[in-house]
Amino acid sequence: MDLALAATVYRRAVIGGVGDVPWRREAECRLYGRVVEGKPLIMGRRTYEALGGLLPLGDAVVVSRDPAFFPRDVMVRSTISAAYNACARLAKGLSAREAVVIGGATIFRLALPVTDRVYLALVDEDREGGRHFPLLPPARWRPALAGPQYRPDGTTLFELRTYERRPEPAPGPEPRSY
User: Fold this and answer.
1) What is the pLDDT, as a whole number, of residue 72?
2) Strand, coil or helix: 86
């Protein structure tokens, strides 16, 4: 099963403030619905609490180290690895080929080294916030798809970009010893 990240990213890589989800626009919510539909989700506790019912969470796993955190509508795991394993089991029942990490900043940073794909909605607006999306080094990530999403007046609302992880470089020849 593949692992993907999905985020709305504003200028300066801002993805939100403490305890809020920036993408409350109808078009962005529809985008997230298309990206995550029929796939198990992974998110951090603060993202789960900030969502407030914006997405259906029936097949979601929340990553939290808080032993007192027991929501009724999702599974809870203490590590990204354990959440991935739980999603792999969920994915079989859903016939899904990928699980999607939907935030927050710490969970994105922890999941990025094992992620296969990244879906970004890039919004060309300033947004206050102390949470940022991790950098995608071009040596490790290649753009796969890009396309603007338009407002009814024809101006750009956001640009959807998909990135794929580049294959690991083949090992070079063994260095000679002289």
Assistant:
1) 82
2) helix
Residue type, 115: T
The Cα–Cα gap between 42 and 60 comes to: 6
Interstrand relation of 131-132 and 14-16 (parallel, antiparallel or unpaired): antiparallel
* 99: helix, strand or coil: strand
Phi, psi values for residue 21, rounded to 5°: -115, 120
Spatial strand order of the sheet with 117-122 comes to: 75-77, 60-63, 41-44, 98-101, 2-9, 117-122, 156-165, 141-150
What's the confidence (pLDDT) of residue 129?
A: 84
Long-range CB pairs of 51-58 (<8 Å, 24+ gap) are 51/21, 54/21, 54/24, 54/29, 55/29, 55/102
The C-alpha atoms of residue 159 and residue 89 are separated, in whole angstroms, by 32
Residue type, 109: R
| Closest alpha carbon to 131 in 28, 9, 23 | 9
Query: Average pLDDT per run of 10 along the chain, which is 178 residues long?
Result: 92 75 59 83 90 71 93 91 96 93 94 96 83 93 84 74 88 67
Taking the C-alpha atoms of residue 23 and residue 21, their distance in angstroms, rounded to an integer, is 6
pLDDT at position 33 is 75
